[in-house]
Amino acid sequence: MTTTHSATVDTGIHKGAGANLALATAAFALTFWAWNLIGPLSKSYSQSLHLSPAETSILVAIPVLVGSLGRIPIGVLTDKLGGRVMFTITCFVSIVPTFLVGLSGGSYGMLLLWGFFLGFAGTTFAVGIPFVNAWHPPARRGFATGMFGAGMGGTALSAFITPRLVPALGLFGTHLAMCAALAVMGVGMWLFSRDAPGWKPSTEAALPRIRDAVKIPATWQLSLLYAVAFGGFVAFSTYLPTLLTSAYDFAQTGAGMRTAGFSLAAVIARPVGGMLSDRIGPVRVCLISLFGTCLGAVILVFHPPAEIPAGAAFVFIAIVLGLGTGGVFALVAKLVEPARVGTVTGLVGAAGGLGGYFPPLVMGLVYQATGTYAIGFILLAVVAGAVGVFTVRAFGSVK
């Protein structure tokens, strides 16, 4: 059984907290847009490069790998260097793979290579959570991290806007525009963001910090929850355009619009999940998320007609996953001492990203083998239900 940890920071909201929350959320959204540049264009890549469903799913999933595992060292560095420095660095470093992915549209191998490094843009989650936590008192952290987490709406922007930019600017021009946006954001974070007045850099070495965080039971427990909640969101956000074009015969722009709607629903629900966590407790919010996901997946097993009920089921899953992503990090704030939030966030965030890495691969293989996604949705229902039961047992006493 896990016990709560008493926070040790002051309980007042620092002046500048709102502005820094807004800046962090904007940077998170933009880097997540860059992270998800390949998924909305998967149909174009599949057709031009004659890719199989399995090859397409690998291409879509590859940025998620680095975006997941990279959160571990990025979280540690954030504890040492602060969010201002790390947001600036991640924005500028992300320009390089964004540029090179734009040059690689004619080669599957080069897309895989630079798509792998494009995953670096997805590490900013591990920067923002400790950055935002330090600015807000314990009673407001559910709200604050939920609002910051709404920056995952960058995937919605990518799904909706990227397929529309390509006809206007060209594939390379679209990536150049993203490079410019990342450069502007990097400059903006350096000039206008600030670390919280009470924040102090960690002086511990990285490996001992990771080792100590791994020894905390809550790290593993929360990682499991986040692998389903955020992993489910990432998996749908990256693979839903492929699923809708293959299973429901939508055009790429139509699939992108619906994927944007899915992402937007999850984005709106995330801060709601954080605020609900402050009111009814993060454990209850997580249970709503997990069992709700199980229900939605069961509906989709039967390949219902598009829009209703399939579209409604996808939106419902988006909402409950969004609630869960807000709930998990409200729970982090309760269970982890502030000085270790960055490191634990990196580990939990990595688990969440990895949770989004494998489902597209499974879905692609399942569809290639059976011509349907039913088995994949059965697996989602079973996993979400099982983790819901685990949550009751592991966190039943946490308020």
Verbal overview:
- This protein has one domain: MFS general substrate transporter like domains (Growth Hormone, Chain: A).
- It has 399 residues and is mostly helical.
- Helix 1 (17-35) runs antiparallel to helix 7 (125-135), helix 1 packs across helix 9 (154-192) and helix 11 (217-247) runs parallel beside helix 15 (341-370).
- The chain contains 16 helices and no strands.
Helices, strands, pairings?
Blueprint: H1 17-35, H2 42-49, H3 53-69, H4 71-81, H5 83-103, H6 108-118, H7 125-135, H8 141-149, H9 154-192, H10 206-215, H11 217-247, H12 252-280, H13 282-301, H14 310-335, H15 341-370, H16 374-395
Which key terms come to mind for this protein?
globular, 79% helix, mainly alpha, disordered N terminus, single chain, 0% strand, Growth Hormone, Chain: A, 399 residues
CATH class: Mainly Alpha
Arithmetic mean of pLDDT: 89
Q: What fraction strand?
A: under 5%
Q: Tell me the distance between the termini.
A: 13 Å
Relevant CATH superfamily: MFS general substrate transporter like domains
- Poorly predicted tracts of residues: 1-11
Q: Please work out how many helical segments DSSP would assign.
A: 16
- How many structural units, i.e. domains? 1
Q: CATH topology, what is it called? A: Growth Hormone, Chain: A
Oligomer kind: single chain
Beta strand count = 0
Structural Rg = 20 Å
Class from secondary-structure proportions: mainly alpha
